[in-house]
Amino acid sequence: MNLNRKNLAGLFCCLAIMAVGFSAHGNVALYFNLAGLLIVVGGTAGATLLSYPIARLKIVIAVLLRSYRTPLKRPEDIVEILVDLSVKSRLNGQLSLQEDEAETSIYFLRRALGFLVDGIPVQHIRESLGTEMYFFRLRREESERILLSISHLLPSFGLAGSVVGLIGMLGGVGDTVTILATVPVALTSTLYGVVLSSFFFVPFANLVRERTEQELVLQKIIVEGIIAIENEVDPRILERRLQSFLTPSARQVKLVSLERIRERFQINLRAVDFQPQEAVVPVRPAVERPSSPQPR
Hints:
By secondary structure, the chain is mostly helical.
């Protein structure tokens, strides 16, 4: 999920409240100390580089940027796309979906349509897409774990900065200038560690987890929709089935209408063409039983 206007408005309000709290006692310059900031940031960055390769850290940054910048499709939009693809497949055949494979901007849907167009069996499609979802979750959980580990390192190095400041203060007992120079280092280091951890990296990890769960729901909808298209499920039945993934408030989407089908594919349809086919039960002809012999 990307930050919308409501999120940004709430964020600015919270920042304003924090700023008022910090400036309530007058001298805001007391909260800025370069030595304490260098100890916290430098120590955390060094420990992170010792723990993870740079290539992996670049992936974490890319995931964060994508989570904030790229809006996520709504589940109801995915349902509508799959129902339209089902209609098109039923009218023009599954090979006609090759055009949509090239046009869609959703990578997972593009992969699923590729399997469908290539005629891969249903079982193999489910296994391949399931494997991709599994490793997608693993990669995102690793990014979340890295962010959480950084959030745990920050308060630790804030405490280290406080110890450094206390050592300098004890070493300068009797010297007022030394004490005044080292006390801010001891206090602001802890402040920087806690604020950077709780206000930035813990929310970053929560964002990655929330985004991952939302994308997995979309992927599950796509898997069920693609398999239903392969099995030639009626579009109306498919829409009802996929709406089970949606919240009750998002299920107010109208069923597949003939008007929408005509507009999208520019064809003439009859209402009977999209009625679910009922199973026909064969009726066996009655067999004449031999009459029982009459008693003499």
